[in-house]
Amino acid sequence: MRFTSLLLATSLTLSLVVGCATKTGPISAPPQPGNSPDNAHITVYRESSLIGAPVTMVFLLDGKEVYGLRQKDRYSFQLAPGDHVFGYYLGLNECRQAFYIQAKGEYIFKLAPDCVIDQEQGP
What we know:
Helix content is 16%, strand content 46%. The protein has one helix spanning 2-21, and strands at residues 25-26, 40-46, 57-61, 64-69, 74-79, 82-90, 93-101, 106-112, 116-120. A hairpin with a 2-residue loop joins strand 6 (82-90) and strand 7.
């Protein structure tokens, strides 16, 4: 009986890990900013690292799951200016950081697995 319970628990754990590892690409649409000329262009990318390598990093925007990133993946979208919270979770770790997005700005954000969201210079 104990062996069966242990086997079932192990199978469930593996299913959760494998399920998290395969959740890539679009999850839900980011907030729709409309066709305003003030919209900013945002690109987020996942830094390559051994930490969490086989697991998908789920990008969050204002608390909403938006996109699943594998190593070196990029995701670009339009965003209305103002205060926004960017974040991600990678396995059991979750990170969030607030940014002010200026009108017509071009932003690149590097998502690193050690709970760092770095804003880099846009083009």
